[in-house]
Amino acid sequence: MKTRSYGKYCGLAHALDVVGERWALVLVSDLLRGPKRFTDLQRGQPRIPSNVLSARLKELEDAGVVRRRVLPRPPGGVGYELTEYGRELEDIVLHLGLWGAKSMPDPGPDDVVTADTLLLALRSTFRPEAARELRANYELRVGEIVVHARVDHGVLEADEGPLAATDLVLETDASLHPLLTGELSPTEAIESGTVQVTGKRKLFARFAEVFHIPPMPVELPA
Amino acid sequence: MKTRSYGKYCGLAHALDVVGERWALVLVSDLLRGPKRFTDLQRGQPRIPSNVLSARLKELEDAGVVRRRVLPRPPGGVGYELTEYGRELEDIVLHLGLWGAKSMPDPGPDDVVTADTLLLALRSTFRPEAARELRANYELRVGEIVVHARVDHGVLEADEGPLAATDLVLETDASLHPLLTGELSPTEAIESGTVQVTGKRKLFARFAEVFHIPPMPVELPA
DNA sequence: CTGGATCCCTCACGATACTG
DNA sequence: CAGTATCGTGAGGGATCCAG
């Protein structure tokens, strides 16, 4: 049935046969944080038609990347989760996300931001070397989304939802992106009112160091 | 014109806007070893229509991944090469290639193998830790293709063509894949006649350790 | 011979509606 | 909630043709 192969006997070509179809990798990335139901995946990918979602999940399941599973609650409900093999895509997804973030334009009017997006951004931009001395609990509120990031000496734990004891709360209606690239400095962000911070404000500067998107390399003329 | 976006403000989604289209990543992988002409790229991707190749190259050029360049010879000839930004995909491509190799089925009757494929396989399966004590010059002949791999204490240099001074020459008409997964042991490979070796035969066993495709993880039942 | 452009056909994708 | 059914469109596949 794989009439649409690349015709090469090559690991990369086969990888793309499996996760190279449209939507496949973004679905994998949304599943990185744990099992999700069909409808959750739809919400994460607002533009995906349900039949295509259905087809992708079936293909990924056949390829051993995703596993379909009956959930305890609600009775009869089903969920999708990554297999071990699927989990091995985690680093690749994170690196590809960081690579893409370097050339990402400003958000379009219809672009949506989910908690998964935000958490992927935090995890892919996290620089353990820069966080070796840091211990801090951040809470981020971007629009309606609330996530948190616990940084503990080079180790990051990021998840959805608020935090009981926070060191610093960042709140914004805009995007974190200019902050992560350094296009917007923490001071500028506060002064312009783009970002409101509550808590130990000194930790804001550290935030921008610890979560960072390196610039696109410059081209040397030939 | 980007009517075909993912609708998410997300680094990964944008990365896939850039290199997620069909053929894009395999083209990048073929360009990793240096500039190539239009026709070379066609030979590397036998199934790609010329109009699609043309379109992909233009898109990749617009995205800053590929650069079009006039070559000294032949006069008027053009070549395509990766930009610095494009080169940053190298690790991702190698890891994705290795990931795919774990679940790669046997070659189809029409699957082609090129030098690029082979070199990608060598580079992605190379395990520096396993090669720390090794210094060896391998020459590989797979069908018509000839490549070499110099291993020098954890560092690999792999390129096309034969080698003046070889320690071991491996020759086969089949694929290296079962050798790299361990499905076929070096001894079995020699005894069955699948692979012919010339030179220091002890280095054959080392070869299979140094270039290795780990198995697909086993699934634990829930 | 390289580096494409052009045409046509097909199928995967996208939108919408509908069902167990 | 978790999909299937239907149908239109456009990107991809394949062959051919053309300019430098």
Would you mind describing this structure in some detail?
The structure is a homodimer of 222-residue chains. Chain A has 222 residues and is of the alpha+beta class. The first copy, chain A, folds into two domains: 11-88, Orthogonal Bundle (Arc Repressor Mutant, subunit A), CATH 1.10.10.10; 115-210, Nonspecific Lipid-transfer Protein, Chain A (2-Layer Sandwich). Helices cover 38% and strands 19% of the residues of chain A. The first copy, chain A, has ten helices and seven strands. In chain A, α6 (90-102) packs across α7. In chain A, 38% of the residues are buried. The model of chain A has no long low-confidence stretch (mean pLDDT 95). Chain A binds a DNA duplex (20 and 20 nucleotides) through residues 3-4, 21-22, 37-39, 42, 47-55, 74, 76-78.
Q: DSSP helix count of chain A?
A: 10
String of helices and strands of chain A: HHHHEEHHHEEEEHHEH
| CATH superfamily heading of the largest domain in chain A | SCP2 sterol-binding domain
Largest interface: A-B, 67 and 67 residues
User: What is the strand arrangement across the widest sheet of chain A?
Assistant: 5-4-3-6-7
Strand content of chain A: 15-25%
Largest sheet features of chain A: 5 strands, mixed
